[in-house]
Every structure is written in structure tokens, then in C-alpha cells.
């Protein structure tokens, strides 16, 4: 089924058949400029209606506790149990498979903190500048305890880190785990393209000639963790996001309903809507949202900032 634009009647129907709303964060609730207009009112209204709200992010640069602080800073009602981030899910994945060795991390301090909380030893976080020449590199010393390479967002990505990670991965018994493969970060009203974690993952998997186990969206581990903690029925859940390949992909992978908003990565011009699917000719080789929202989702219609898209559909009073 092609994506259907959400209207007031379909919004009412969606609310009646949904108990749990899973929100992506960056590009949906906030972006680099702050809170996206209408999003805070939406979360508050949904909670007033008795709906459960969860915050589901591929961003690996914060722990769950740090995300809780960010939610509080912006005014979003949240508890740590309602937050799932990839730094946490990656550490939890390793704990659940009883991983006992050391992890080489191409990543950031938040990933290290989540690994620490699960009792998993790690190395590699922080700067690793280029040293030596090819003659030196062929004799590089590796840590024999490393049996996993974990790749997330790394602002210190370097040639040496890529080399260490790819070399560890030449051992077929070394696990290769990635937090996500998002291509870039959502930024509104700017031509700047900020590379995402997919950049770091591609840099490692290309020389390693291996594919990672991805724990973030659109793969199942993120939803499965929430499902266990809160006994969620997938049929009564909707995923709200701005990326077709990750947010909507997660919904399709896990049997959730999906709502695509146009405040982040995906533009309305990319959508095959119900009335133009024959014109676009797009087939099932890509994920399609159940609904898209192009107007505000809040109880009072308010202007969006200049140049912005109206991101949510009107939420009717009950």
C-alpha cells in the first residue's frame, strides 16, 4: 500500500487503534536548532490521552541518562525506561550473547559508559592520530583480547582507527557490530551535510570486507528491547520518524504502523502517495510509510518557523 496522507479522520482512527507511540528524536522532536514546533505539544497531548510514548534514537553519542537530561531540558516528559538509544542497545546485545572478551570501539564516550554499565571491557575511544608509514603498519601490535569491533559515531575517526578495526576483523572469530548506518544528520534550512554513523561504518567495512551486525533501526533489537520491558503489542504501536530507510524500515521489520514526518531527512517529493503511486512507479523494493504528515499535530495550530515544513497532522480533541 502506498503512503497515505494523514487527515483528521485517519488521525482519529489511528489514535483509537494505537496505544504506544515510538518517536525518533533528531529530525522529529528536535534538530540542531532546537525543538521542532508542535512536537512538544504533541507528546504532552498524547500522554494526556493515556498513550504511552517512547523515544527511539539511532544516535549513539549519548547514553540513556544523557538523553533523559536532554528531554528534560526541552520539556519532554520522559523516564529512562522510555528511552532506547543505540549505545545502550549495542552494549545490551553483547551482554545478552554472553560476550566476555574486549571490544575495540570506533565510537565515543557514551558508548564506553554503556559498555561499562554492562561490565564489558573496551579500548579505542578517543583520538588516534596517524603515525608511522606502511613499513611500520605491517608490524602493528594488536590487543589479543579484542574479539569484537563496535562502530558508532566517532568524531575522532582516523586512518589509524580504520586500520586497527579492519585488521582486528581479519580474524573470523572477531564480531563486527555497528550501532546504525544512517548516512547523515537532519539539519533544517541549511545546505550543510553532516556525515552520520554510516560514514564510519562504511570506512571500516570497506577494507575489512565484512558486513556488520546492525543493532539500530531498521533492525529488530531496538524494538525487541522495548517490547520485553513494556510488554508491547506490535499491532498497537506506531513508529513516528523522518527516515524511510531506518524509522519506517523498523516499523515494517517489526509489524508496527508507521507515520513519516517531513521535518528531517525525507522530503515530501520522495513519497509515493496513495493518489500518485501509478505515476511514480515505485515498487516494493523500498520501504513505504503507512501515513505521512504534512501539517501540525497539536491542539492549537501555530505557525512554523520560516522555511520550515508543517510536520504533524492536527490532533483532534477527544
TrEMBL record:
Cofactor(s) recorded in Swiss-Prot or TrEMBL: Mg(2+)
Catalytic positions are 24 (nucleophile), 26 (proton donor)
The protein's superkingdom reads: Eukaryota
User: What InterPro entries has UniProt attached to this entry?
Assistant: HAD-like_sf (IPR036412), HAD-SF_hydro_IIA (IPR006357), HAD_sf (IPR023214), PGP_euk (IPR006349)
Q: Which residues bind Mg(2+)?
A: 24, 26, 242
The record's annotation in Pfam families points to: Hydrolase_6, Hydrolase_like
What is the name listed in the Swiss-Prot or TrEMBL entry for this protein?
4-nitrophenylphosphatase
Its ancestry begins with:
Eukaryota, Metazoa, Spiralia, Lophotrochozoa, Mollusca
Amino acid at each position: 500500500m502506498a503512503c497515505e496522507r494523514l487527515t483528521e479522520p485517519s488521525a482519529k482512527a489511528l489514535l483509537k487503534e494505537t496505544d504506544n507511540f515510538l518517536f525518533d528524536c533528531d529530525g522529529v522532536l528536535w534538530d540542531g536548532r532546537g525543538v521542532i514546533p508542535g512536537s512538544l505539544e504533541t507528546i504532552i497531548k498524547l500522554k494526556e490521552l493515556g498513550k504511552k510514548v517512547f523515544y527511539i534514537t539511532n544516535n549513539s553519542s549519548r547514553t540513556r541518562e544523557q538523553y533523559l537530561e536532554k528531554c528534560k531540558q526541552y520539556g519532554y516528559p520522559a523516564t529512562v525506561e522510555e528511552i532506547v538509544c543505540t549505545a545502550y542497545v549495542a552494549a545490551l546485545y553483547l551482554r545478552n550473547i554472553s560476550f566476555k572478551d574486549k571490544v575495540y570501539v570506533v565510537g565515543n564516550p557514551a558508548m564506553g559508559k554503556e559498555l561499562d554499565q554492562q561490565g564489558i571491557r573496551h579500548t579505542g575511544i578517543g583520538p588516534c592520530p596517524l603515525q608511522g608509514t606502511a613499513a611500520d603498519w605491517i608490524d602493528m601490535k594488536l590487543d589479543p583480547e579484542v574479539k569484537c569491533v563496535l562502530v558508532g559515531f566517532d568524531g575522532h575517526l582516523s586512518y589509524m582507527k580504520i586500520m586497527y578495526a579492519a585488521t582486528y576483523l581479519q580474524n573470523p572469530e572477531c564480531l563486527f557490530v555497528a550501532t546504525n548506518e544512517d548516512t547523515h544528520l537532519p539539519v533544517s534550512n541549511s545546505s550543510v551535510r553532516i556525515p552520520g554513523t554510516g560514514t564510519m561504518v562504511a570506512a571500516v567495512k570497506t577494507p575489512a570486507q565484512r558486513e556488520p551486525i546492525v543493532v539500530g533501526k531498521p533492525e529488530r533489537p531496538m524494538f525487541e528491547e522495548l517490547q520485553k520491558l513494556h510488554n508491547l503489542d506490535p499491532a498497537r504501536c506506531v513508529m513516528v520518524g523522518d527516515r524511510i530507510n531506518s524509522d519506517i524500515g523498523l516499523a515494517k521489520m517489526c509489524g508496527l504502523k508507521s507515520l513519516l514526518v517531513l521535518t528531517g531527512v525525507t522530503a515530501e517529493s520522495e513519497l509515493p502517495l496513495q493518489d500518485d503511486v501509478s505515476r511514480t512507479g515505485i515498487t516494493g523494493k523500498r520501504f513505504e510509510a503507512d501515513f505521512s504528515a504534512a501539517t501540525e499535530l497539536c491542539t492549537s495550530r501555530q505557525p512554523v518557523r520560516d522555511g520550515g515544513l508543517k510536520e504533524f497532522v492536527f490532533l483532534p480533541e477527544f
